[in-house]
Amino acid sequence: MTITPRIYVGTIGEGVFRSLDGGETFARAADGMFVECHVRALAIDPLDPRHLFLGSEHGLFQSRDGADSWQQVESPINGKQVWSILVNPANPQLLVVGTCPPALCRSADGGTTWTQGKAAIQADCPRIIHTRVTTLKADPWSKDTLWTGVEIDGLLRSRDAGLTWEPAGSGLSSRDIHDIAFAVSPAGDRIMLAATNNDLNRSTDGGVTWQPLGIGKQLPWSYCRSLGQPIGKPNVVLLGNGDGPPGTIGIIARSEDAGATWTEMKMPRRANSTIWNFAVHPADAKYILASSVSGLVYQSHNAGVSWTLLPREFGEIRALAWGP
C-alpha cells in the first residue's frame, strides 16, 4: 500500500474515533459535537477526502479537515436520528440523508439548502418502535435514480434524484432491508442485491422483481447485513453474515460471480457478532475495512481475499469509513 489510510469508526455512545497511522492507534475525534453521541452514518466526499459527513441522534454534521473539527449542518434534520447518508458519486453536490423515524431529506447544493423527499413510509414497528432508513445508494446504470432500504418497510426508488420516492420490488424474502449493492455477472448481466434479515435477494431486471438466494444453504446463517464491493471489480461482492442482530458470531463471505455463489473467508479471529459495515475508497482499490457491530475492525489489502484484525477493540460500531 502506498498511502497510510485515515480510518474513521462511528460508535454508539462514544462518538467517532480516528486513526492517522493505518489502524495502529485511535483517538476520539469529536470536537464540535456531543462527545458521547451515537454515530450511525459516515460518508466521505469523493472529491475531497478530508470532507466528511456524519450522522448522529442530533442530526447531520460535517468536517472539512479530516475530523479535526465538526460543524452541524443546519437543516430540517437537526435533532433527528440519522441512519444513512448518500453523497452521490456522480454528483457530490447531491446529498440524501435517511432518518429514524423514517424520512428522506435531500440537498442539491452540497448541504446549503434542503427539501424533504416525498415518500410514503410506514413509520411504526412494534419491535423497533420506529422504522428507519438503513441504506441509500445511487444507481450506477440510471442517471438520477436512487435507491433506499427501510427497516422495516421494503425498498423505495427515486427517479428524480430524491425529490419523490415510490415503493419498488416484488418477491423479496423480507421487507427488512439492510443494504443494497449493484454488480455485474461474468456474462455481463446487471445484478442488484438486497440484504435482509432472512436472506440475500437478487434482481436481474433493475429491481422490479426479486428472488431469494437461500443464502443459508451456502453460508452458516441466513441473516445478512452489509454488502461491500472492491472498487473496479463489479463482479465481486462482499457480504456481512452472522447469527442475528447484533449476534454473537459473524463472518465475511465473498462472491466473484455477482452473488450467485459464496465462499466464507478465512479470518484471524471469527467475529464476535455480525459483520455490520464495509468501507472502500478509490485511493486504494485493494484496501477494504470491515467491522463487526460489537467492536472488531478488520482490514484487507487484497480486495477482501484475506483479512487481518486491527489491535483496537471498540464498543458498538455502527459506521465505518476511510480516506487517504
Write the layout of secondary structure elements.
Layout: E1 6-11, E2 16-19, E3 27-28, E4 41-45, E5 48-56, E6 59-63, E7 71-72, E8 81-87, E9 95-100, E10 104-107, E11 115-116, E12 124-125, E13 129-130, E14 132-138, E15 146-151, E16 154-158, E17 166-168, E18 177-184, E19 190-196, E20 200-203, E21 211-212, E22 223-228, E23 237-242, E24 250-255, E25 263-264, E26 275-279, E27 288-292, E28 297-300, E29 308-309, E30 317-323
Antiparallel strand pairs: 1-2, 1-30, 2-3, 4-5, 5-6, 6-7, 8-9, 9-10, 10-11, 12-13, 14-15, 15-16, 16-17, 18-19, 19-20, 20-21, 22-23, 23-24, 24-25, 26-27, 27-28, 28-29
What features would you describe in this structure?
Helices cover 0% and strands 44% of the residues. The protein is an all-beta fold and 324 residues long. It has one domain: Methylamine Dehydrogenase, Chain H (7 Propeller). The chain starts with 5 loop residues before the first strand and ends with a strand.
Percent of residues in beta strands: 35-45%
The assigned structural class equals mainly beta
CATH class: Mainly Beta
What's the Cα radius of gyration? 18 Å
Give the terminus-to-terminus CA distance. Answer: 11 Å
Series of secondary-structure elements, N-terminal to C-terminal: EEEEEEEEEEEEEEEEEEEEEEEEEEEEEE
Portion in helices: under 10%
